[in-house]
Protein: receptor protein serine/threonine kinase
Amino acid sequence: MIRRHLPFHCRSYWKPPGLFPEMGSSALLTLVAAGVFLWISAIHADTNDDGQLLCICENDKGTCENGTCRGDYCFYTWVRGDQERGCFMKDHVREQCMTSFEGFYVSCCRDHLCNGNITPPPDINGITTTPPPAFPPPELGIAVSLLLLFVTASVCALMLFLHFRRAPCRLKDAEDQDVTKLKVPTGDDPTYDNIYDEFCTSGSGTGLPYLVQRTMARQISLVECVGKGRYGEVWRGTWMGESVAVKIFSSRDEQSWFRETEIYNTVQLRHDNILGFIASDMTSKNSSTQLWLVTHFHELGSLYDFLQYSSLEPESCLRMCLSVACGLVHLHTEILSAQEKPAIAHRDLKSRNILVKRNGQCCIADLGLAVIHSQSNDYLDVGNNPRVGTKRYMAPEVLDETIRVDVFESYKQTDIWALGLVFWEITRRTVVNGIVEEYRPPFFDLVPSDPSFEEMKKVVCVDQQRPSLHNRLHSHPILSAIVKIMKECWYQNPSARLTALRVRKTLTKLDHDSDFVIEKLKQDV
Structure:
C-alpha cells in the first residue's frame, strides 16, 4: 500500500466587481442536492457491482437450486463435448474466465440469466476460439466511484467558497487528515498457455484452471487401485492418453483434501521434487460423495515400497537423499516475487509420503498437514485438520508437547528430524562392501509395529535413543558423510539441528566431489 498526501495550497483571491454575482440560498441547495445525488448514484452503482446475479444452472455439482444459482459471474463451459452452466464468485475471475486452449471454451457474463442462451461457436471442434472478454479489474470501479465523489465534493466546496467568500487556509498538519490509499498492482496475471506441457513434466504448479478441474472426474477412467491407507485409496487412471494418480479421500479425512487443495491452488509449488498437481474435484459414486486429488503418476510407487525390493549403490543413495532435501528446501523457502510463495512446513514427512521417479530422484507428496507461513504478510496458518502426524517420525518436542506451536521455525525443525529418519531408511538399503540390510522402519527394534504415543515418547524423549547405524556405513566416504548429517538432524535441541538448506548444500558438494572421483578413476583405467 502506498500513502499519498494531497496538499491543498490555498490563497485569497481578488474578485473583480460583478464577476461572481451574489448566489441565493435556493441555488446553493440545488447544487448541494445534485452533488448528493451523484454521490448516492456512485455508491449505488458500486453496490450493484457487488450484488449477486441470478444465473442458469445446469451441472451435477450440487450447486443448483431449481435450475438456477446466484453469484458474481454467470458462466458457460464446453469441455470436449461436456457442457455446464452455473455461477461463481469474483475471487478467481481471471483464472476462471480468461483460459484458452484446445478442446475448451468458456464464456462469462454479468447480467441476470445471461448464460442461458450461450452456445459454443460453430468452429469449436477442438480449436481454440476467440478469447473471452476481459473484465475490468475491481480497482477500476473503486477508482471511478472515488473520482465521482471527489468531483462532487470539489464542486460543493467551490460553491460554498463563492457563497461565503471565505479565504481558505493551508492544511495545518497532513498527518491529521485523511489520505488517499492507492493499491499498486505488481506483476502480470498468470497464464495457462503451457498447461499441457507442464502436465507432461515432473514439476508441479497450481494445476489446471478451476472450471476445468470441476470436470476432471468425468474425463478420467480409473484403471487399478495401487494403494490404500487411512486417508482412502490411490488409483491409477488415464486422462488424455496419459496415466495419472487419483487419490480418493475417505469422508473422515475431508479436511486433508481441503487443505491440500487449498495449498496447491494458492501457492506456486512447481518443482521437480514436489509431486505434480493436476486438479481437485468432487464426484458422486454409488450415492456417496468422493473427494479426488489428481496428480502425476509415478509407477515405482512410494519410497517405502521401493526400498522393500530394491537396494542402492552409494552414488544412487546420495542422489536420492539430495532430491528429498531439494524438495524440502523448496517447501521451507518463502519466495518474494510477483507470484509470491509462502514458506511451507510438511509436518508428516516419511518414506510413505515420498514417491520415487524413473530417474532415481524423489518427490515429496501429501501436504494435508502442511503449515503455511508468510513473513512478509505476517501470518501463520496451521489449518484446522484434526489429523496428527505419524508417531514413529515425531520429533522429541512433539512427543513431550514442548513445541512452540506459534513459531513457524518449530515446524521446520520437526521436518528436519523426520528427514534424518528418511535418510536412515535409504542408507540401510545401500550396498557397501557387498553388505546390505533388509528394510526396516525407524526404531523397529525399540517399539512395536504400531507404537503408541507414550511408547515413542519413552524411547525418544526419556531414553533419548536413536536408530542404530551399521559399521559398514563408516567405511565409505559418501555414507559416512550422510551418517554425520543424520546425527545432526537428530539433536534433542531443535534449534541445534541443521536446516534443510544446509543439508542440501552439504549433499550437493558431496555429489560434485563423488562425480569428480568417479571421472578420475575412469581416466586412470
